[in-house]
Amino acid sequence: MSTPTRTRAAIALAIAGVTASLLTGCNPVDAVQQGVEDAIESATGGDVSLGELPEGFPESVPLIDGEIAIGAGGSAEGTEGWVVTVTSDAADPVADAVAALEGAGFTKDESIATGGVGAEFYSDGEYSVLLVGQGSSVVYTVTPVQ
Fold first, then answer.
1. Most confidently modeled of 21-35, 75-89, 111-125?
2. Which pTM was predicted?
3. Three-class DSSP category at 25
4. Which among 143, 145, 1 is positioned nearest to 82, based on CA atoms?
5. What is the dihedral of CA 93, 97, 99, 103, to 10 degrees?
């Protein structure tokens, strides 16, 4: 089955699951969240959670204050990477993320900025962190240094 077909099938299954849970009286917010998580996991083959950190996310990587919108990837062994999106009410969430990383001992590797979207690369020797921010959201892509 091709990826677009799998994606459509996963979304259809998620909608069916949400509909069934609504008809049986389950909490609709929980049902929608679970349906979205299941659809993304099925389409990508990865572990995805809404509103929480993915399994094994390193405690040494500080996140800005805000709401975790999406957490993905990872493993209990910490051998894979993680992607976390945080939405914040801060005036400059990217600057806050940079300050938190630098305060935790991460150093900047290089910077790329185009079209209002900046990408910042940081490392502490154990983990590499790619920060991408726009507006009120910051996306952290964290990988173990090999």
1. 75-89
2. 0.65
3. coil
4. 143
5. 150
- Inter-CA distances, 125 with 60, 81, 82, 99, 129, Å: 11, 15, 17, 18, 11
Q: Which two tokens stand for residue 40?
A: 């993304």
> Sheet harboring 48-50: ordered strands across?
48-50, 67-73, 82-87, 137-144, 127-134, 117-123, 107-114
Look-up: residue for tokens 């590797």?
109
Tokens representing residue 35 in the block: 């349906």
More confident residue, 29 or 95: 95
Which residue type, as a one-letter code, is found at position 107? T
Residues 30-46 have a mean pLDDT of: 48
Strand partners, 108: 122
E-strand ranges in 6-106 read 48-50, 67-73, 82-87
Q: Specify the DSSP element, H or E, that contains 12.
A: helix 3-23
Mean pLDDT within 38-50: 55
Name the token pair of 99: 């300050």
pLDDT band at 112 (very low <50, low <70, confident <90, very high): low
